[in-house]
Amino acid sequence: MNNVIKRVGFVSKYFFAGIMLVYGIQHFMYSNFVARMIPGWVPFHHFWVYFTGSGLIAAAASIVLNWNAKWGCFFLGVMIWVFILIIHVPNLINDHFSAGDLTSACSDLGLASCAFMLSGILKN
Fold it and tell me: Which residue range is the domain that position 38 belongs to?
């Protein structure tokens, strides 16, 4: 049973990296849509969309290549927490905790938690 758990964990880190890669590519493909999600008080919307997409792709690459994956996952978790604080929390407050906003915030909270857990167990 222990071997099964290790194998599932090993494969899951690659699924997580794949999801981050897809999100990163989508930031480039749908930059106009993603830029509309950034609050108005944040300047240079498209810069942040491309910066974030690059960060997601870099984190995925660090996991797959096992190159500074511990730090890549840590900074990925931090980046997602910034999303939660500047995008999701204000949306939740302004929309009176709508179901869609709450689901999106919880999804990002889960992704950040996975990134931090991976950061804690991966070796450099």
Answer: 2-121
- Per-residue pLDDT reduced to its tens digit, 77-105: 999 999 999 999 998 888 777 788 889 99
Side-chain-side CA neighbours of 78 within 13 Å: the count stands at: 9
Q: What separation in angstroms does the CA of 97 have from each of 67, 83, 86, 88, 111? A: 39, 17, 15, 10, 20
State the burial class of residue 23 (Cβ atoms within 10 Å of its Cβ: 0-12, 13-18, 19+). middle
Distance, CA of 32 to chain centre: 19
Q: Which residue has the higher pLDDT, 9 or 31?
A: 31
pTM over 0.85: yes
Whole-Å CA distances, 120 to 64, 67, 72, 112, 117: 16, 15, 11, 12, 5
Number of domains in the chain: 1
Task: Report the SS3 class of residue 40.
Answer: coil
Give the 3-state secondary structure of residue 34.
helix
